[in-house]
Design goal:
Blueprint: H1 3-30, H2 38-49, H3 57-64, H4 68-80, E1 84-89, E2 92-100, H5 102-122, H6 128-144, H7 155-163
Antiparallel strand pairs: 1-2
Amino acid sequence: MEGENRNRICMEIHRLDNIITRILQAKVREAGFDEVTLMHGWIIAYLYGSRDRQVYQRDLERACQIGRSTVTNIIKLMEKKGLICREPVENDARLKRVMLTPKGYKHREVVDNALEKVGDRMLEGIDPGELEVFRRVLGRMIRNLGEGQRPCRERKACQDWKKEE
């Protein structure tokens, strides 16, 4: 693939992400929830979707593809805002289960509504076959970039990754 086309695809994906982010943030603010960032919304959605099992900080790191210190700071802030709580695990005092509070559940409804509205609007005029192709291609791109790998934790690892470009 030519460099210009490759750059354009990356730019278009980035542009779509920015548009989705901007619309979701506006929808959440419209509902009166200024205190929830988009990352908080993704974490709330993940915790809700995983409510039938125990979720730990490392699960959030993997799901959101962000580093340990970033997740730690986000968890502390969300805990301070009353959106989540951490509860020690009986058989391992080092582990703490991350769970939604009643306030977190209330925010989840707003986040879900916003996601549904944005998703519906974004997919207008796209037939199921096109959507399936898009999902397959997107999945392949994510695998190609190493989804599931830990985020760069050391400068050396990041430098090694940049050399491959």
